[in-house]
Amino acid sequence: MTPRLLRTAVATALALGALGLNQPARATSSDGVHTVRVPDGDPHDRSLAPRTTDPFSLIGVTWDDPDEALDGTVQVRTRSRESGAWSTWRPLEADSRTPESGPDRDRPGVRGSTQPLWTGPSDGVQVRVAGSRLPEGLRVELVDPEAGSDAVHTGVVEPGVVPPAAGPQSAERPAMTSRSAWGADESLVKDPPTYTGDTKAVFVHHTAGTNDYTCSQSASIVRGVFLYHVQSNGWNDIGYHFLVDKCGTVFEGRAGGVDKPVLGAHTYGFNTATSSVSVLGDYSTAATNAAVRASVAKVAAWKLGLYGIDPTGTTVLTSGADNGKYKLGQKVTFHRISGHRDGYPTECPGQHLYDDLPEIRTLAANAGTSAEPAAEPPGVLDEDEDAYEDETDAGEDETDAGEDAGVLGR
Fold this sequence. Notes:
Largest sheet: 8 strands, antiparallel
Structural class: alpha+beta
Oligomer: single chain
Strand content: 15-25%
Low-confidence stretches: 1-26, 151-166, 370-410
Radius of gyration: 22 Å
Helix content: 10-25%
Number of strands: 15
């Protein structure tokens, strides 16, 4: 090759890389998930150059060994499909763990993973991973919840009015959006649910990532989490039993019967005989609102009430794994409504939501057995969202004032 042709080839390669069109890493895809391998190299620092990708709205990073932790940081930048603008660098929480037992651990293809991040409609990505110990087989998971073989796009909300359970602690089942309504592709769930003993406690989570979503997007976010847990993590189903958005809408999570003690994949070491509810959003940075707190309380009150349990009480659970906080077989006393961080070394469900747990326990205790009003049609979500934003703004103002006074933090 002549020097002139060589210079031209080099310049062309550099231009393609600058445009995000140079993609040396292999990319594969399955229903709703497009994956891109992060090139191997430095054991402490790996990256994926900016590139154009298939459409996606949720992103995460996974690796080969589900028992290996990623001791480091994962940051991503994404490009908006609407504006073409690149986001700032955003972190992915790397404290997710594979379930300690059951089909979600034993299935072939189970992978370690970060928590996913909702990005909104995107078509470009850049990734950097750094740390003292990076696992092998890193790959970027780009999830398009609008794809898939049988995606359903509907906002129908089921009233869910059923008779309360017998006993003094019973409460009405809250209205919730069923799996069919938010669009779960049941063909991806290969194994039947596993059932455990009575539900003794409820763990509260947040999905982390971002609060920058509209409540009309909530069903898409839930579909995205489902696809990430099943297609990317290799689990049998979505890990959470229930999900709640910032407008207070409740979504049915893991299949098997919302009134049954289904084994979940949510709190490593304490998945047995417990339930879970995860709030869409990052409550390390944002305050919750009355709608979120009320919905979490209603779910917990109803679920625990099926067994006549006082939601303000405590219970003793036995750890099913060495999880970094408790040893295998260690007996631990939990509140009946606890935060993820109470059972596992994580910041989840965020300090704001964690600080709300005493109020949520009180709300759950007062849930009673009075009938809930019928669910509003999907068209009212925009009004609920406006109310949420107004209350959040007020809460942020109050938080700022508290910080100025030096009265926050614990």
